[in-house]
Amino acid sequence: MALQLKWMGGIALVFVAGMLAGHLLDSFTHAMLPTASSMDNTDANGNADLSGIDELHKLDVRVTLMNSAKALQQEWADGAVRILQDARVDVGKPAIYASDVQSIAAEPGSAIVSYEPDIRDVRVAGDWAFEWGYFDAGFRQGKDKPISSMHGKLLRVLRRENGQWKFFRVMVMWKEDGKAEAPQ
User: Which SUPFAM superfamilies match (predicted)?
Assistant: First the structure.
């Protein structure tokens, strides 16, 4: 019984320590990392980081609607990782490209016909940025197929490479023909 109480006390201590560490990290990030709404397109150093990130967002919409694996490569950083639901993890820009080529070839005539991201928060920390948001998209699964809709959530880590922002880590979840989660 005494051993069981020590074990449970240890679990409680780890839990409390984890909660404290999480709170401290959250406080640090809120205090140290500027948000898109508080920065007016500049970071704490006066750099135009958010306008560069906005350019990446525009590129993302443009190349997504092109339905071209080659065009999509423009938005990925070297060493990027993409995690999509119900798919293998693509590690590295060449793996992301190969996966895109395979996906496009597997469903001839398929296409993303609309794509509207809704980025809710961007945090910049030097050559890194972190963002999350929602998206709505329309897609066709093949030639002469009807257009369906999907709604999803995304979490992305961006990295500045050669002066341009690129996606470095991306995780996306979606639901077809229904809301993944209502925006708050």
Answer: NTF2-like
